[in-house]
């Protein structure tokens, strides 16, 4: 099986998750803060190497009606940039409702607003990646 990296691309932070070596489960890994696409890639490269990643999945935040909003267009642009910078497959994955789903879970678990803000990006990346892994089984 292959090791997959999942990314939740936000406007200020990027949530990072990685699959186990068998590609069955996703674990949250990190949150990256970067100003530019190049800086994001430079911070991702050591993670890709250390984790021996074979594929990357980026969450694509489509609108509920399936159209692309400004953030979806931003993710598509970053996906194209990333493909030019690394030599492993990069895919887009529909992530509608992922952040809302994670937020709801954390509220139900009585996580404080401050803690939710700190953890939501990593957990959203984990949910995106787990959804992708479940689909390819």
- Portion in strands: 15-25%
In round numbers, the mean pLDDT is 90
Q: What top-tier CATH class fits best?
A: Alpha Beta
Order of helices and strands: EEEHEHEHH
CATH fold descriptor: Nucleotidyltransferase, domain 5
Query: Roughly how many Å apart are the termini?
Result: 10 Å
Number of strands: 5
Describe this structure in words.
It contains four helices and five strands; from the N terminus they run βββαβαβαα. It has 137 residues and is α/β, with parallel strands linked by helices. It has a single domain, classed as YqgF/RNase H-like domain (Nucleotidyltransferase, domain 5). Strand 1 and strand 2 form a beta hairpin. Helix 3 packs across helix 4. The N and C termini lie close together (10 Å).
Topology:
Layout: E1 4-9, E2 13-19, E3 26-33, H1 37-50, E4 55-60, H2 70-85, E5 90-94, H3 98-108, H4 113-136
Parallel strand pairs: 1-4, 4-5
Antiparallel strand pairs: 1-2, 2-3
Name its key features.
137 residues; Nucleotidyltransferase, domain 5; 4 helices; 5 strands; alpha/beta; 23% strand
Task: Give a concise summary.
It contains four helices and five strands; from the N terminus they run βββαβαβαα.
């Amino acid at each position: 099986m292959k090791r997959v990296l999942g990314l939740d691309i936000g406007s200020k932070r990027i949530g990072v998750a990685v699959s186990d070596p068998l590609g069955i489960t996703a674990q949250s890994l990190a949150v990256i803060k970067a100003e530019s696409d190049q800086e994001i890639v430079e911070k991702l490269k050591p993670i890709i190497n250390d984790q021996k990643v074979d594929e990357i999945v980026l969450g694509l935040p489509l609108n509920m009606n399936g159209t692309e909003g400004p953030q979806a267009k931003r993710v598509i642009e970053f996906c194209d940039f990333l493909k030019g910078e690394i030599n492993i497959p990069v895919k887009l994955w529909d992530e509608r409702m992922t952040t809302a789903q994670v937020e709801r879970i954390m509220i139900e678990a009585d996580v404080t607003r401050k803690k939710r803000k700190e953890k939501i990006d990593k957990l959203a990346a984990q949910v995106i990646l787990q959804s992708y892994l479940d689909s390819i089984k």
